Amino acid sequence: MDVLQAALDISLCRAMSVTSAGASRAPLPIRAGRIGASLAARAWRIDLRDHLIFPGLINAHEHLHVNAVPPLRSGAPFPNSYAWIAAFQAHFAEPAVAAALQVPKALRLRHGALKNLLAGTTCVAHHDPWHAALDATDFPVALLRDYGWSYALGWPGYGPPVSSSFAATPADRPWLIHLAEGTDATAQAELDQLDQLGCLAANSVLVHGVGLRERDVDRVIASGAAVVWCPTSNHALLGRSLDPRRLCAAGRLALGSDSRLSGARDLLDEMRAVAARGELSPRQLLGLATTDAARILRLPSRGSLAPGARADLVIVEDRGGDAESNLTGIRRSDIRAVVRDGVPRIADPDFAEWFAATGVDAVPVTLDGKPKLLAGPLAEPALLALEPGLERLAGRNARAHDATIEAGCY
After folding, report:
1. Distance CA 336, CA 267 (A)
2. How far apart are CA 47 and CA 355, in angstroms?
3. Are strands 121-126 and 142-143 parallel, antiparallel or unpaired?
4. What is the mean pLDDT of residues 71-98?
5. What's the confidence (pLDDT) of residue 119?
6. Are strands 34-35 and 51-55 parallel, antiparallel or unpaired?
7. Three-state DSSP class for 367?
8. Residues 224, 239: Cα–Cα separation, whole Å
């Protein structure tokens, strides 16, 4: 059990709860770290008038341990990811890259998780070998577990072989594989090979797929497989990305950030860029990062505000307009609170009473210049030092702030 899981009953009142399926003004109960089916007889009541509550976001593709590694600054666009990997070899000799990779991997994994949490992502699919640090009870985000994975067919020796990995993955668990991200025929040839190997099935989750043609998209949809779309990374490395509309309409698309090594700063930045290009609507984007991702990755307790779901929440101000754009159009410092398992992990200072009520020490920090409170177990100095824009404020007592969010028991 997460050491920060809420033990008390909470009622979030007078806010609008928003999912890709619609919105509700009913109070949102939290019981034992999950969304409750009914309000408790006595609960800690938090008045969230003029606020919106969204499910915690799901990042469907990340490499957590490389977010502090400086990106390659030349050579793009590449014909495919193999060419990018070849170009990156000389980059390892750069002093800044070497220094970043000297940081212990456990700390780098934790940093990637914190980066996600700060932007409202509470669950991540980490597409790399498992590491013991990921099992820490106070790891910043929840993780996709019990899944199969491999890398593209042209990367022998890195990760498990495709056929054996797919065969070892139960049909009710997702199996993740990189395609070559090619703008040439590489990704198309790989899809053909996957199909010939019997590895294109309802639990297959293909990452990137930039080179997929219309008939390839037809095959993905017909097989029940899905694609994780990482558009910022695709544009940075390859100069283009796939057209998301048909896969999105079929419910076979999720959203990932890849990592800062090639992609966006975080999933919020990814969503805002997609919305600015007009590729998908705010409601569709919300679905990609919540309900669609949860279905594709077989995560029934994530990405939802239904009774029994994990109480993973993103709370923002209601600034008017359509509800979804209040999330898909903002930056991480605009978030009022990120909640995981019913406990605030980072929030504005006027949520101090919620931290106190759940027994969590809150540390004053600034995030991109704005004052915040961060859950104490996430405020390790070495961890904060890795994240640009996140600084601890010395000499201040988090509980000394006046609470302007009305809270109390009833």
Report:
1. 17
2. 15
3. parallel
4. 86
5. 98
6. unpaired
7. strand
8. 28
